[in-house]
Amino acid sequence: MEGGVPEADISAFRECLSLSWKNPYVLRLAFSAGIGGLLFGYDTGVISGALLYIRDDFKDVDRKTWLQEAIVSTALAGAIIGAAVGGWINDRFGRKKAILIADTLFFMGSAIMASAMNPSILIVGRVFVGLGVGMASMASPLYISEASPTRVRGALVSLNGFLITGGQFLSYLINLAFTKAPGTWRWMLGVAAVPALLQFALMIMLPESPRWLFRKGREEEAKAILKRIYPPQEAEAEINTLKESVELEIKEAESSDKVSIIKMLKTKTVRRGLYAGMGLQIFQQFVGINTVMYYSPAIIQLAGFASNRTALLLSLVTSGLNAFGSILSIYFIDKTGRKKLLLFSLFGVVLSLVVLTVVFHQSSTHSPLISAVETSRFNNTCPDYSAAMNPGGWDCMKCLKASPDCGFCAYGDNKFRLVGPRRLTLLAESSQILETMSTTWSMFDIQ
Predict the structure, then answer these.
(1) Domains of the chain listed by start with CATH number
(2) Residue 369: what are its φ and ψ, rounded to 5°?
(3) Which helix (H) or strand (E) holds 93?
(4) 276-282 long-range CB contacts below 8 Å, 24 or more apart?
(5) pLDDT (tens digit, 9 = 90+) per residue, 231-267?
(6) Cα–Cα distance for residue pair 369/362, rounded to 1 Å
(7) What is the reported pTM?
């Protein structure tokens, strides 16, 4: 990005705070666009808690794990499509319109999910939400970066990352708030329509990105916006810098010697930067962060905490530290640099995953295998199991929900191992702590 302002001698985080009274217009632009990140985080996190109650209402979902996986993963499939077309929409119609389209998709998806009468309609709603997530992931940070002063650009773009993790934390709070409400999961999924409407209303009143306006030849509009973003003594220099940059891009695009992708990849600096950026995004997904965020309450239940409310409450620890990691990145990103923060966070991810591997390996190898005799003896200690019409159809979750003291569950070919109540509690506590460690480290958002 362009910018002729020297590096700040104080933290960009503190300078962002000073903008609240120096130039609130910049924060208004950033926060309004950042609501897209909030919706991104909310719609990816809310399904983890809602799924617990969807299984209770739709028995097919409870019996068929592929339906549960479809409800979760179709949003990701929609996000892939949304991100793929999002770049074209951003360039053709502008960042502002792309965000407005994403808001419309968020609203439609939330309404469809909240009124779904069967799993199929619910999946359709998740696809709409996924399309919105994909488009918002492209448009929101791009708008913020192009409408931010150079000095605090890194911190303000990181704000979008914080709002994503903050949205995930908010989703767990909303899930917890509606556990006793009629309709539970319908409220959980439908609440996302509110911030979508709010952002739509705010963005209607805000201008387009100044860089996009320059590219479309609307220079006077772009200059007026830049004069509101930058102090008077810096505005003219930024206008000239941006104008020169855009003119150079247009000239290269129109010339016979166009800058092709192959030609760019032959440049060592560009190639290494591309590999680093793409590699970071790809490998971040393989550390297990999505599994934790999408299935955290279910994982906690399988660890022995059968209550939906308790599982959601414990999941708040994970999502809370996830958001806290993003706050730290906003504070340090312009103070210590991207590379140092990245290396530090990657070291934390590796450390937490190694410890997590050791803990699960130890719990697996030291838990004795169970025989049919032990299975029968332990199962018969549960009154609900003994009185059940079809005890053979019971699974672990039914056992755990039948009695909070139940710390043993087994079925099918002796594949499950004996876990006593106290041992189960310790395992759940250690798993929760290590999940939290991995989540916090992996979500340092490097922009």
Answers:
(1) 12-206+259-273 (1.20.1250.20)
(2) -65, 150
(3) helix 65-93
(4) 280/342, 280/446
(5) 877 778 888 888 888 777 777 666 655 556 677 777 7
(6) 14
(7) 0.72
